[in-house]
């Protein structure tokens, strides 16, 4: 009986923990305005990144603070991702657009500080590889 318990204990110890299979991504967001509101950030795979209004793989909404702040995403699978963030200054749940729906009226940014294009987000400029463990990227809102 004791021998069987020792074998079970060794088998459990040799099994990798679930946390070892995931990554943690920290976003350092800079240039938040003093207008407050919410900071909305989403981590997207390629299919969801290029479609306006699609849901992120993981998303977070936190109270916006002027200047800079960090947002942490845990439990991501390693892979290729792109990040979109915006400061929802009026807390209406979407990025306000002007000029026929083409120009953002609230601060926004993407991974690799990729610039938005009229035809949609530039995956080739915004994506990055996320590996096991922890990673940090910086996004400047404009």
- Tally the helices: 3
User: What's the Cα radius of gyration?
Assistant: 19 Å
**What is the highest CATH level, the class?**
Mainly Beta
Portion in strands: 35-45%
Secondary-structure element order, N to C: HEEHEEEEEEHEE
Helix content: 10-25%
Mean pLDDT: 87
Q: Which CATH architecture would you pick?
A: Sandwich
Task: State the CATH topology.
Answer: Immunoglobulin-like
Unreliable residue stretches? 1-19
What is the overall shape?
A: globular
Biggest β-sheet strands, sense, barrel: 5 strands, antiparallel
- Structural class of the helix and strand makeup? mainly beta
Q: How many E-type strands?
A: 10
**N-to-C span:** 66 Å
Structurally, how many domains make up the residues?
A: 1
